[in-house]
Amino acid sequence: MRIRTSPLAVAVLLAALISVPSPASAAATPAVVAAPSSPSVGEVTTLTASGLGGLESATFGIGDTSAGAFSGDGAETGATTAVVPVSQGSAVVEFTPTRSGDIVIAVGTGESDLAEVTISVSAPTAEPAPSTTSPPPAPAAATPATDDSAQAEPDSEAEAGRFAFVLIPLIAAAIVVVGGIIVISRGRRRRRGD
After folding, report:
1. Quick one: average pLDDT of 9-17?
2. Last residue within a domain, chosen from 103, 123, 143
3. Of 5, 12, 72, 127, which one has the fewest beta carbons inside 10 Å?
4. CA separation for the pair 55, 9 (Å, rounded)
5. Containing H/E element for 95?
6. Closest CA to 59 of 12, 101, 127, 114
7. Is 166 among the domain residues?
8. Residues 15, 19, 21, CA angle at the centre, nearest 5°?
9. In the chain, where does DSSP find H-type helix?
10. pLDDT grade, residue 48 (50/70/90)?
11. What number is the average pLDDT over the span 103-128?
12. DSSP type of residue 34
């Protein structure tokens, strides 16, 4: 018995394979996160850029050169721009603000900006001198333990991989069913002489 491949089945198979998103094609959108996002003047904040894909290096910069300076791997001390290496789509640099107010920090390729973050810098606060006449404050009531079982946000690349892992077998099963229906219906037609 010779089985002919139906052009329809081949077209469905090719369309299904082309439409399946691969984890590499489901690239995340570039983003920058500051921790802490509201530092005081002189307090170091860590900037993490993610979703940078295949870039080898990322350029961090600020528009107001008197607003602060970068430090860390790839940054010159006191520089208002920093070119840092990208590892697995992420880059990290430290920033120390020198003035209060909102400061916009951008990350990009050196030629174009990919993402930016605004940090709100507060003025430094003077700590009061310790008093020797007053008793030390009473310890605060114990705070309830935090729930460490809370789930973190899922990684977009992992989600895309899971999606493809489930979608590919479903599409393959659909193609097998459609192909089987076509083969069976053609076999019945030939037996009847249609």
Report:
1. 52
2. 123
3. 127
4. 40
5. strand 91-97
6. 114
7. yes
8. 155
9. 7-19, 156-192
10. very high
11. 83
12. E
Res 177: pLDDT: 86
**Pick the residue with more confidence: 128 or 180?**
180
Span 142-153, mean pLDDT?
Answer: 55
Residue 101, in any domain of the structure: yes
% of the chain at pLDDT higher than 70 = 61
How far does CA 151 lie from the centroid of its chain?
Answer: 16
Q: What b/e sequence results for 116-127 when a residue is b if at least 16 CB atoms lie within 10 Å of its CB, and e otherwise? A: bbebebeeeeee
Count of structural domains within the chain: 2
In the chain, the amino acid numbered 157 is E
Q: Which residue has the higher pLDDT, 130 or 52?
A: 52
Residue 190 is classified by DSSP as H
Q: Are 36 and 91 in a shared domain? A: yes
Tokens describing residue 65: 């050169």
pLDDT, one tens digit per residue, over 22-31 is 444 445 788 9
* d(C-alpha 73, C-alpha 70), whole Å: 10
Amino acid at 20: V
Structure tokens at 31: 């983003």
